[in-house]
Structure formats: C-alpha cells, structure tokens
Amino acid sequence: MSLEQFKNRNVGTQNYKTLDVGKTPETGMAQFVQVAKRTFKGELFVGLGVTMKAMLKALFANDMHTVKYPFEKLPISPRYRAIHDMLRLLESGNYRCIGCGLCEKICISNCISMDTRYDEEQRKEVSEYTINFGRCIFCGYCAEVCPELAIVHGPRYENASEQRAGFSLFEDMLTPIDKLNLQQEYDGFGAVSPNADENIKQTPLAY
Amino acid sequence: METTLVETLPQVTVTGVIIKAVIILAVLSALAGFGTFIERKVLAFMQRRLGPMHVGPYGLLQIAADGIKLFTKEDIIPQNANKLIFMIAPVITAATAFIALAAVPVFPDFTVPEFIPLLGGTFVPSIASDLNIGVLFVLGMMAAGLYGPLLAGMSQANKWGIIGAARTAIQFLSYEVVTGLSILAPIMLVGSLSFVDFNDYQAGGIGSWLIWQQPVAFILFLIAGFAETNRTPFDLLEHEAEVVSGYATEYSGMRWGMFFIGEYANMITVAVIASVVFLGGYDAEGALGWLFIMAKIAFFFFLMLWVRASWPHIRPDQLMWLCWKVLMPIAMINIVITALVMMV
Question: Which of A126, A161, B66, B218 sits at a 20 to 30 Å CA gap from B82?
Fold first, then answer.
C-alpha cells in the first residue's frame, strides 16, 4: 500500500456512493402520491414482522445472544496475550523453566526479575521470579523468546485483584501440580507452528 | 325502557363501589408494576437478549428490587426549582391516571358469593361510577394528566425539562383533537357516552364489534392512544437520545416512579378503552368475560411494546404534521361519512 492515498486530503470526493433515494416531489400531486405510496407500502408492518420473528426465534429456537458473563465466558483466541502462565513438564511435573534469563533480558518494559541458583545436583533452579504487572505491556516477547515454552500467556484476562502481588509470583503463575492433566499447551507467539514437522528438513547424516 | 333497566339491575351500593375501586386499584397497580417487567422481557426477546434474569426465577422479583430501590432513594429537589410544583407534578400524573379508571368498565359485574362474611351478596358493578359522560370524563382526565409532565418540566429549572415541557404542550394540542374526533364516530353510532352502553351495544359476538363498522376510527384512536401514553413513535417528551430525560430529567426516586406508574396506568386505560369501545369489551358471561377483556387488554399492551421494539420515533414537527394535516382530516371525513350513513 502506497502512501499516496493517505496524502490525499481532498476528503469527500473519493470512494463515496450516493444512495438512490429518488427525486423530491415538486408538484402537490406528486407529493400526495408519495405519501400514499409510503402509507400503503406496509413497511412498518415488515418491521413489526422482523421483531416478532426475532422474538419467536429467541424464545423457541434458542437464538439468544446473551452471554451471562461471570458464569459463561466466550472463548478467546489462543494468540491472546493475558496474564502469564508458567508451565510444567507433563512427565515429571517439574517446572519447565531452566533459569536461562532470556525473558528477563528481552523484556522491554523491564518488569521481569528473576534469580537463580544451583541446587544440590548442580542444576539451575529458580529461586525468585516475579513479573511486575504494573509495568508489563503484554507484548509477548518473553513467551516468544522462551526456548522451553515455560513462560506463556494464559487466558486470564480479568486483571482485577485484591493485592498487587496476586498473580505475579512464580508459584501463582505456575500450573498447580494437581491440575497438571488440565494444563493447556500454548498456541500463541513462540509456540511451535502446527505444520512444524513439514518444515523441518532432515539433517544429512551421510557426510 | 329506562324503568325496565332499573328494575332488572341489582342495587348498586356504596360497598359494591368501594370493592370495585379496591379491585381496580389492586389489579391495575400490580399490572402496572408487572408491566415494567413484561416490557423489559419482551423488548429483550425482540433484541435476542434475556432481559432481567437474576432476581427471582426468570427475574420475576425484579419489580420488588426496583420498588425497594425507588422507595429508598434520596428525594432530591433542585436548588432553583419551584418546590411546590416540582413536588406536586408527579402526583398529578399518577392520580389522574387512576381517576380516569373510575369511569372505565374493567371487569364484568358480579355478585359477591353469600358464604363470604360481611360482604356476601353485595353487587359489584362493572364500573366504579357509571357516568353518563364516561367517555368525556376519561378523555378529560387523561388530558389533565398531561399537566404532570408540563408542570414538572417547567418547574425544575433545567433546560432539558423546559424542552420536554414544550414538547408536552405541542403533543397534547396535536393528538387530543384526533382522540376526540376519532372516538366521536363510535359515539354517534352507539348514541351514548357511557362505556357500559358501548359494551352492551356490541353484546352480539364478534360480528357486532364496532371495529368492523369503524375501522378508520379504530386506527386513528390507536395512533392517538400511542401519543396519549407517550409510547414510542411519539415519545417526544422524554426521548433520551435527544433531551436526556425530558420533563423527568431532575426527578429521582419515588417521584420519578410516580411518572412511571402513571404512564403504565395510562397504557392500560387506553388498552381498556380500545377494547371496550372497538373490540366488544367483556362480551361474554361470567369468567369468560373476565378472560376475554384481559386477553384484549394484554394484546393492546403487547402491541405497544412490540411497536416500541420495531419502530423509530418521529420528530415533533412530524407529529404535528401527522396529527393536524393527516389524521384530523381523516377523522373529520370519517365522522361525515358515518353521519351520512346514519341519516340514510
């Protein structure tokens, strides 16, 4: 798309279609004919029919558009970027985070802060992990950069909380261990694309 | 003929009239409250919504919740308002709406069964006071009810209120002529101003309903009735999109609620008049008569909601154009033709 059409400031001459509303009647007789035509056209009753049909469908065909919001929720796109989730490995139940610190590094609003240490088996473990949601702009870079799909964006878009720390600690965002079987894989930014297998070229081994 | 009528009819006593008044008041204020619920539900269904759902089963107790809210709200009187008139105006609307019902036959007459103590055997007339000028009285009372919005709008020191009051005046002047003239033709046919005579005139089943003899008058009266009750094609007085709330802008709590009750009582009154004058009224014996008149009133009530969900409203100048240049001439022609047919 070129810039040309945005620079055209002559608004009102392009891309407008005039509706065919007919001619304004000039003589008295023509006015009378128009009034009579409009009076007996029955368009008002068409309108009544439309609403009656809508009501009957709403009552008997269950064609209701209301979502009782706190009790029912509309499904959101998998690419929606709401409060973060920390995922676990399905087999062992350990958290996926390997403490690499990429998310902390890439965060453009500087709201992720983490601290790691070596545990007794000399593996990295996360000792501190918080996201300051007062600063977070939900850009999705952390989820995109994460090599393990450990930090992802979850579906929790209701951000009201009694305390500021309500969902910003690692434990709050981590999938509860007893709900591991309910853990949803993330489809948004950084996730493996559905046709990833087709895109992988086999490594030539016969060197 | 008059003497035979008096002999056959039972004595109308004070107790009977009081019972009738209580029945009308109780049934109609309950219906007016229930009407708000029905209106919200019907409008919701026509817009594919659910309407009130949470207070009670299917939101049935929403009326109670609204009532509690209205009664407990602070009664605010604006600083520069004319206090006395501001306080009286809602009472005028509500009171005239119910006074008008005194001369309207809402249910058929009946005799209280003997086994009920104290009141047993009392004859309850179909009409609280069978005035020989019933139609005039009701129309006059409903017209007087328009003083409510008029005074309310002018007393509240608010420009939206003033516009609402001005619109009340033009609407009042415009449709009142049509109401009177449209109902004049049936009056000529029946030869009486009493609603009971209207009802008796159409006692011969559906074929004798006045709507078949006076279809034009019926439609004219219906249109004027919509204007009379400030219903949607003619709700100029308080149209939110244009004048915030019109005459009711500064009202809150139960004073606002009284306007509301008055409007719904007026809707029912117009529905009753339309069914008694044009659709035969309670033209069956006993319980069936009650059922028939209720069904007819319900139909007109539903029609008002249905129209509100379907049609846009018109501008004040269009209302005046419609009333003075279209409806009034048609009403006049209708009267002349009726008179000619009656003479020949």
Answer: B66
Is residue B322 classed as helix, strand or coil in its secondary structure? helix
Whether the CB-CB separation of A64 and B48 falls below 8 Å is answered with: yes
- Is residue B249 within 8 A of residue B164, CB to CB? The reply is yes
Across the interface, do A55 and B45 touch by the CB < 8 Å criterion? yes
What average pLDDT is seen over chain B? 82
ipTM value > 0.90: no
**Residue B53 dihedral angles phi and psi, to the nearest 5°:** -130, -15
CB contact under 8 A, A47 and B49: no
A-B contacts (CB, under 8 Å): 41
Contact list in B for residue A52 (CB cut-off 8 A) is: 46, 306
**A115 within 8 A of A125, measured Cβ to Cβ:** no
Q: Which of B46, B50, B311 sits opposite A55 (nearest CB)?
A: B46
Q: Say if residue B6's pLDDT is above 50.
A: no
Cβ contacts of A66 on chain B, cutoff 8 Å: 48-50
What amino acid is encoded at B186 in this protein? Answer: P
Say what the pLDDT of residue A108 is.
92
Test A50 with B310 for CB contact under 8 angstroms. Answer: yes
The dihedral through the CA atoms of B305, B307, B310, B315 has a sign that is negative
Kindly state the tokens that stand for B87: 């306080």
In this complex, do A48 and B306 lie within 8 Å of one another by their Cβ atoms? yes
Substitution target from B49, B53, B310, B314 for chain A, most A beta carbons within 10 A: B310
CB contact under 8 A, A65 and B45: no
- The pTM assigned to this predicted structure is 0.74
Contact A159, A170 (CB under 8 A): no
Contact yes or no for A58 and B45 at CB 8 A? yes
User: Contact, B14 vs A28, CB < 8 A?
Assistant: no
Decide if A47 and B48 are in contact by the 8 Å CB cutoff. no
A106 has pLDDT over 50: yes
The structure tokens listed for B57 are 């089963």
Residue with tokens 């306080």: B87
Chain centroid, CA B250 distance in Å: 25
For the stretch B134-189, pLDDT in tens is: 888 888 888 888 888 888 888 888 888 888 888 888 888 888 888 888 888 888 88
Please indicate if any CB of chain A lies within 8 Å of the CB of B325.
no
Strand (E) or helix (H) holding A84: strand A84-86
